[in-house]
Amino acid sequence: MTKKEKVNYVIKELLKIYPQPKCTLNYDKPYELLIATILAAQSTDECVNKITAELFKKYPTLESFAEADLSELENDIKPVGFYKNKAKSIKETAKILVEKYNGTLPTTIEELVKLKGVGRKTANVIMANIYGIPSIIVDTHCMRLSNRLGLVNSKDATKIEFELRDIVEPQLYTIFSNLMVYHGRAVCKAIKPKCEVCTIKDVCKYFKARK
């Protein structure tokens, strides 16, 4: 089985369990997803969603984030970890979006990654969910599962993104990425993966090595 065949099999099987895999961060406005994704680095979407439920009420506009008191914003997002850097990134990025982009998000990855606190993962989240452009989103789940399945052999997120681009059908980029998140949370956990109930274990390099 080639890697492309394996990917197609994995997607087909996982769609039976997770038929409509979507972004698991809560947001109503495009910039809210950007902020939520910045917060999600080294944290969980569940934790971020709890924080943003109140955060987006307290700061209802992009301008309010740009004008926020930095120490107060730090305190508001403290549970996510790395809150000082994230607060600074959010405030600076909000200011740039207001002043340079008239409050709208850049439409290319190249522009998005120039924003403070925005890497390729965050940029791809925006491209996929705001602009509807299929994108490979390499988060911790995608990285872990892609390695365990034997699709890649790397810990470099950018390298993994481009390798997956070559073996996943372009129109399925976002679906594949979301399926990795769903399955990574439910079954293929970082510690004590539930291999015994995994429906794709027959094509999994990690499972075969454990036998």
Automatic annotation (TrEMBL):
It is an enzyme of class 4 (lyase). [4Fe-4S] cluster binds at C188, C195, C198, C204. It catalyses: 2'-deoxyribonucleotide-(2'-deoxyribose 5'-phosphate)-2'-deoxyribonucleotide-DNA = a 3'-end 2'-deoxyribonucleotide-(2,3-dehydro-2,3-deoxyribose 5'-phosphate)-DNA + a 5'-end 5'-phospho-2'-deoxyribonucleoside-DNA + H(+). InterPro entries: DNA_glycosylase, Endonuclease3_FeS-loop_motif, Endouclease-III_FeS-bd_BS, HhH-GPD_domain, HhH_base_excis_C, HhH_motif, Nth. Keywords: 4Fe-4S, DNA damage, DNA repair, DNA-binding, Endonuclease, Glycosidase, Hydrolase, Iron, Iron-sulfur, Lyase, Metal-binding, Nuclease. Gene3D superfamilies: Helix-hairpin-Helix base-excision DNA repair enzymes (C-terminal) (1.10.1670.10), Hypothetical protein, domain 2 (1.10.340.30). Binds 1 [4Fe-4S] cluster. The keyword Protease does not apply. Its cofactor is [4Fe-4S] cluster. Its EC number is 4.2.99.18. Residues 39-186 form the HhH-GPD domain. GO terms for biological process: base-excision repair, AP site formation. One of its GO terms (molecular function) is DNA binding. Belongs to the Nth/MutY family. DNA repair enzyme that has both DNA N-glycosylase activity and AP-lyase activity. The DNA N-glycosylase activity releases various damaged pyrimidines from DNA by cleaving the N-glycosidic bond, leaving an AP (apurinic/apyrimidinic) site. The AP-lyase activity cleaves the phosphodiester bond 3' to the AP site by a beta-elimination, leaving a 3'-terminal unsaturated sugar and a product with a terminal 5'-phosphate. HAMAP family: Nth (MF_00942). This is Endonuclease III. It comes from Caldicellulosiruptor owensensis (strain ATCC 700167 / DSM 13100 / OL).
